[in-house]
Amino acid sequence: MRNVSMKPKAPHRRGFLSAALSFFALSLSACDRLSSEPRARSVLDAASSLSYRVQRLLLGAHRLAPEYGETDISPVFRANGSTDPQDDEYLDLADREFADWKLKVDGLVEHELSLSLDDLRALPARTQITRHDCVEGWSCIGKWTGVPLAEILSRAGVKSQARYVVFHCADTLNDGSLGDDPESIRYYESIDLADAAHPQTILAYEMNGKKLDIAHGAPLRLRLERQLGYKMAKYVMRIELVRSFAGLHGGKGGYWEDRGYEWYAGI
Ligand SMILES: Nc1nc2c(c(=O)[nH]1)N[C@H]1C(S)=C(S)[C@@H](COP(=O)(O)O)O[C@H]1N2
Ligand SMILES: [Mo]
Q: Does the pLDDT at position 28 exceed 70?
């Protein structure tokens, strides 16, 4: 499925730089503060800080994931985790083809946002063909189109106290992998501001040239190309800027992190 002789396409650095320069500068300074600040350090220490810090150092915060060509796209892109959410709110939105859906952006921002799919489509878009790696050991190559997260955050205005971006999803994950887990909570994830500012971090509304389908996270899902699949929240409803994710459910920053997976799932 993976064509190893294929050369990654040239990255679109310039577009990103002009679009997100100010936000980028902010996130770099946030990064510096992060490494010197004891409280943030202790959260990182609990969440695999070694691999996080080593990867950041060796690979650089802004290294691009490889991009592929149209012929590399997997004929079938496996869907995983929630693939057909049965939550009432989600079913109502899906019934009307997400015409009433709005992405909320709140928390430590200057301006709260509420964006429809049309609003998102009117923003600058990025298309990327990338390989998705699931922690379970499978990979697929797909083409994703969406809005760079940096575009949204620069419109919301990230307050200086913010350190992380939390994604709140519509689905209660029930794939049987947790047995009879009495906890019925919706999927959630978090990333830092350096990853939020990365050019390949997009909120995708299209997959392989078509409207994103329900199995793969309609109407909007995160693509975070340098980390494993579980970081890439599907069915995103709300984006919250926070100082710390210690108060979010189990305190490890994500649904699977709270069940033992690493917070920084670099590949
Ligand atoms: N909201 C939500 N996002 C999610 C999941 C999920 O169950 N719910 N599963 C994760 C996992 S483990 C993977 S591998 C990818 C799967 O994305 P796909 O269905 O498009 O292959 O979504 C991730 N994001
Ligand atoms: Mo996964």
A: no
